Amino acid sequence: MASRLEEDLCCPVCHDIYKDPVLLSCSHSFCKACLQSWWTEKPTKDCPVCETPSSRKHPPCNLVLKNLCEAFLLERDQRASAGSELLCSLHSEKLKLFCLDHQQPVCLVCRDSKKHTNHKFRPIDEAAQDHREELQKSLKPLQEKLELFNKVKGNCDETAEHIKVQARRTERQIKEEFKKLHQFLQEEEEARITALREEEEQKSRTMKEKTEALSREIAALSDTIRAIEKEQNTPERKNQ
């Protein structure tokens, strides 16, 4: 009874429960989006089932059918959540088969529907086992690759840490060498300035001694010159 009701609530275009159903003048109903998509691909706006031309560009909403669909979906979801096994979202039946064409679990009603015509099926347990085996096969190389990546990452981390340690050690060495160099330059500067000042003092003393000696010589020479000039200017010298 539930399957028959569900078939009555399925859109003839998408074969799914109606969404926003609209009603044509020929009494056929369709999902609003399905009908518009159908008409977009056709030259005339005819009914997809009986090909009767539609008298309206925008058919009215089928409120009765919309309410029925919403009530059916609500009841189906409640039954699905109450059960321990997964149920088909379309037919509320147990998912016993796996469609190889659509790659999805289906129920027995889905298998006989138009949507799965000429499709291949397998028991869901068998398909699940095959899927697990395929996953296991694909998982092994991924695990090996992950292990390799972790190993490479570990080596990179060790190298990065070694680079940091080496950089800090080199930095300390550079600072120590420049500290010694600064100390040497400071001592060299002080030594040269001291030597320069000592040389300056020595030369200054020498020049002072020479200046004083010259001053004495100049004074003595000046005295001699004055004495000679005085002697030349006396009257006795003139009469003789």
TrEMBL record:
<keyword id="KW-0862">Zinc</keyword>
<dbReference type="InterPro" id="IPR027370">
    <property type="entry name" value="Znf-RING_euk"/>
</dbReference>
<keyword id="KW-0863">Zinc-finger</keyword>
<dbReference type="InterPro" id="IPR000315">
    <property type="entry name" value="Znf_B-box"/>
</dbReference>
<dbReference type="GO" id="GO:0008270">
    <property type="term" value="F:zinc ion binding"/>
</dbReference>
<feature type="domain" description="B box-type">
    <location>
        <begin position="83"/>
        <end position="124"/>
    </location>
</feature>
<feature type="compositionally biased region" description="Basic and acidic residues">
    <location>
        <begin position="197"/>
        <end position="215"/>
    </location>
</feature>
<dbReference type="Pfam" id="PF13445">
    <property type="entry name" value="zf-RING_UBOX"/>
</dbReference>
<dbReference type="InterPro" id="IPR050143">
    <property type="entry name" value="TRIM/RBCC"/>
</dbReference>
<feature type="region of interest" description="Disordered">
    <location>
        <begin position="197"/>
        <end position="216"/>
    </location>
</feature>
<keyword id="KW-0479">Metal-binding</keyword>
<dbReference type="InterPro" id="IPR013083">
    <property type="entry name" value="Znf_RING/FYVE/PHD"/>
</dbReference>
<dbReference type="InterPro" id="IPR001841">
    <property type="entry name" value="Znf_RING"/>
</dbReference>
<protein>
    <submittedName>
        <fullName>Uncharacterized protein</fullName>
    </submittedName>
</protein>
<feature type="domain" description="RING-type">
    <location>
        <begin position="11"/>
        <end position="51"/>
    </location>
</feature>
<dbReference type="Pfam" id="PF00643">
    <property type="entry name" value="zf-B_box"/>
</dbReference>
<dbReference type="InterPro" id="IPR017907">
    <property type="entry name" value="Znf_RING_CS"/>
</dbReference>
